[in-house]
Amino acid sequence: MSSERSTAVRDFRHFIGGEFIASESGKTFEKRRPTDNALVGHIHEGGQAEVDAAVRAARDAMQGPWSRMTVEQRTALLYKVADEITRRFDDFVAAEMADTGQPRSMMEHAFIPRGAANFKIFADVVKNVATESFQTPTPDGAGALNYAIRVPKGVIGVICPWNAPLLLMTWKVAPALACGNAVIVKPSEETPGTATLLGEVMNAVGIPKGVYNVVHGLGPNSAGEFLTRHSGVSAITFTGETRTGAAIMKAGADGIRDVSFELGGKNAGLVFADCDFDAAIEGSMRSVFLNCGQVCLGTERLYVERPIFDRFVATLKERAEALKPGHPEDRATTLGPLISQEHRQKVLSYYEKARAEGATVVTGGGIPEMSGDLGQGSWVQPTIWTGLPETASVVREEIFGPCCHITPFDSEDEAVRLANDTQYGLSTAIWTRDLSRAHRVAARIDVGITWVNSWFLRDLRTPFGGSKQSGIGREGGVHSLEFYTELRNICVKL
Ligand SMILES: NC(=O)C1=CN([C@@H]2O[C@H](COP(=O)(O)OP(=O)(O)OC[C@H]3O[C@@H](n4cnc5c(N)ncnc54)[C@H](O)[C@@H]3O)[C@@H](O)[C@H]2O)C=CC1
Ligand SMILES: O=C(O)/C=C/C=C(\O)C(=O)O
């Protein structure tokens, strides 16, 4: 590894009450870089003491100046947070790149700008959304006025995954703060960087101490579980695996705390023969391989209408083989590594299962040859399979890697049936020039989000979330307000 690419080993501390603090226990765990497995940090492992301290800080903040700010004052501060993220853009890009190993271009054009955008959109939403009111008749004829106000829920526990750390964390922190809550974030143990950096941003712009807190740690029997079980946490918002969601839902049941979940997916792409072929290939390339396939909205099942099946498979193979795994700083790099050696084991086990279950391996299926220190990183080849029945493991289970299975179909009804044949219900992409069909099919797919002739085209005002085992609730625009506030009705006899 060249010296300019080496990173000093960092110390990731908790951010509680506006201070960066070490764990009382002194316990830390290692953060290794996905590109070359080099040690890049020691993360303080939060225990009950740190969670208790964060809850105290957050509850105190809810009694302090934060609670007395007008919406205008609060949202002005959130605009400053967004501006400060933009001012420290390079630091955020570097932190996220070190944590995830994904290419700089993706950080610069998508994931980091979204961190700033999340603060602006929710500042705008809370300023502009009205609540309902009714004029109510009464027997004396004078009537009554009913109106609703929104009040913050209190302290929100925010539990985050590793695949788009800043984007997914701020998607929850921004609306929570815009609504006047305080938050305690438990970032993924794989990606401590940007949540920690955001603490510096909060202090720099004058967010009152205790409004934004970060406790690092693991999930079960560690900071994650302690946070979700804490009676001082009013509600829990979580993005991550469906299995973890089930554990958190049980923890939330004590104290009847509300939960909002964005969970796993096994998303289908439906490619009709009348599609714009190049656009369908381009979109499918992104939806299968972006972020090395570690996108909850990504496509791991492609269904292609039979007349274009062979051409589609051949073209996708050619494009997948042209992807360039490499160092995130190299502009030519188009594919990053998986997040960790452990996750690579999981993805490779599916590559193995696909073979064992009789797949035709169109391309990939193994580990690419990487030179120098990159040889130690958690790389896998982009992989395409055909020929498996719908019962095969790689067709049914979420893999979260750069891979997909492609199946031919012969009718619209069959395509709909295949897309819906899953326990998940997060997203779908439909590729067709027939817009009547697009509307018809979209309405029949049991998912939270359908894209037609596009993928991951986001308008932050729209409802975002999953059906079936892909989630509970919707966040985005006004829908986030439903979770991060209580609606309080006031009835005034006139
Ligand atoms: N629907 C959506 O919007 C998205 C869903 N995901 C899903 O996230 C998964 C990948 O992320 P991972 O970090 O591996 O998920 P994960 O569920 O393993 O971990 C997510 C977070 O939960 C914490 N955690 C684990 N067990 C816990 C427990 N018992 N109590 C409290 N906290 C606990 C972890 O420490 C981590 O911070 C994939 O399944 C993916 O589909 C990822 C991004 C978006
Ligand atoms: O756009 C969103 O709000 C969510 C995006 C999800 C990802 O980026 C992901 O899972 O990687």
Inertia-based shape: globular
How many beta-strand elements?
Answer: 23
Q: What is the strand content?
A: 15-25%
Question: What's the CATH first level of the largest domain?
Answer: Alpha Beta
Q: How large is the radius of gyration?
A: 24 Å
Q: Report mean pLDDT, rounded to a whole number.
A: 97
Bound molecules: 1,4-dihydronicotinamide adenine dinucleotide, the ligand O=C(O)/C=C/C=C(\O)C(=O)O
CATH architecture of the largest domain: 3-Layer(aba) Sandwich
Active site: 262
Domain Aldehyde dehydrogenase: 20-489
Pfam family, one: Aldedh
Family: Belongs to the aldehyde dehydrogenase family.
Structure description:
This protein has two domains: 5-263 and 470-493, Aldehyde Dehydrogenase, Chain A, domain 1, CATH 3.40.605; 267-459, Aldehyde Dehydrogenase, Chain A, domain 2 (3-Layer(aba) Sandwich), CATH 3.40.309.10. The chain is 39% helix and 22% strand. It has helices at 48-61, 65-68, 71-87, 89-100, 104-128, 165-178, 193-205, 223-229, 242-253, 277-289, 306-321, 341-356, 393-396, 412-420, 435-444, 477-484; strands at residues 10-12, 14-16, 19-21, 28-32, 39-44, 133-136, 144-152, 155-159, 182-186, 212-214, 235-239, 258-262, 267-271, 299-305, 360-363, 383-386, 403-409, 424-425, 427-431, 449-452, 467-468, 471-472, 485-493. The strands form six sheets. A seven-stranded mixed sheet has the order 15-16-17-14-13-19-20, with helices on both faces. A six-stranded mixed sheet has the order 10-9-8-11-12-22, sandwiched between helices. α9 (242-253) links the parallel β11 (235-239) and β12 (258-262). 51% of the residues are buried. The ligand O=C(O)/C=C/C=C(\O)C(=O)O binds next to α6.
